[in-house]
């Protein structure tokens, strides 16, 4: 497919104008999009130029996070416009958590979602375990945890939502629990001053449901899409081995296939 045509189709579904003002989204490359022929797309959360990924078999890299260095091949960034879009990253996380959305967290931008747990109300201890199973993570960080507390309404943002500005907003939105990633020490102190429960399920894990949904959207445009989870950009070391899983999915118009590979690090 011609690059100009593909980008037009993408932007029909995920408009660039939805992106936050300081966000860099859209095409990155030296060639004119009209000179590109795109048959195979590699979809990644982050661009790692030296991580051993073979980019030569692809015509375009689609990234969720804007790259820190120029990619080796043409690239296209879908970031905050996907986070804000109805049906995008935040809704994918809500669906993964079985939360029926009723509102947005930030009415000014459309960021985040508020909703009710479909099987709720639910004990906080049970919901925490469900979050870990659904996102395939071994732990979460919590603030104001009480295992027998009932949770009725949940606010969430995929990725970066546990910053102080959004925590303050969540505190005034009448929700019981706020789920996202990137909790800092000052943010936790701020949350301790209210009754709002925080769950930090990590930036990476809370964005993965949206990444794979984005792969389905792109595959529906008539190109072959491979989704690769490249993991977090840091290591965790402890006295015990811990399992690490990553999922690689290939999607096209005719079929989709999923394969798991599991390893161990110490």
Tell me what you see in this structure.
It is a single chain. With 266 residues, the protein is an alpha/beta fold. It folds into two domains: 3-83 and 206-265, NIF3 (NGG1p interacting factor 3)-like (Udp-n-acetylmuramoylalanyl-d-glutamate--2,6- Diaminopimelate Ligase, Chain: A, domain 1); 86-201, Udp-n-acetylmuramoylalanyl-d-glutamate--2,6- Diaminopimelate Ligase, Chain: A, domain 1, CATH 3.40.1390.30. The protein is 26% helix and 26% strand. It has seven helices and 15 strands. The strands form three sheets. A seven-stranded mixed sheet has the order 1-4-3-2-13-14-15, with helices on one face. Helix 6 links the parallel strand 11 (177-180) and strand 12. Helix 5 (164-171) runs parallel beside helix 6. It is globular and about 60 Å long. The chain starts with a helix and ends with a strand.
What number of domains? Answer: 2
Shape: globular
Give the class from helix and strand content and strand pairing: alpha/beta
Radius of gyration over C-alpha positions, nearest whole angstrom: 19 Å
CATH class value of the largest domain: Alpha Beta
Question: What distance separates the N and C termini?
Answer: 44 Å
- Enumerate how many helices there are, as a single number: 7
- Strand portion, in percent? 25-35%
Largest sheet: 7 strands, mixed
Order of helices and strands: HEEEEHHEEEHEEEHEHEHEEE
Examine the secondary-structure arrangement and name the CATH architecture of the largest domain. Answer: 3-Layer(aba) Sandwich
Mean pLDDT: 90
The count of DSSP E runs of length 2 or more, i.e. the number of strands, is 15
Output the CATH topology of the largest domain: Udp-n-acetylmuramoylalanyl-d-glutamate--2,6- Diaminopimelate Ligase, Chain: A, domain 1
Percentage of helical residues? 25-40%
- The largest beta-sheet arranges its strands as 1-4-3-2-13-14-15
Low-confidence stretches: 253-266
User: Considering the protein shown, what is the CATH homologous superfamily of the largest domain?
Assistant: NIF3 (NGG1p interacting factor 3)-like
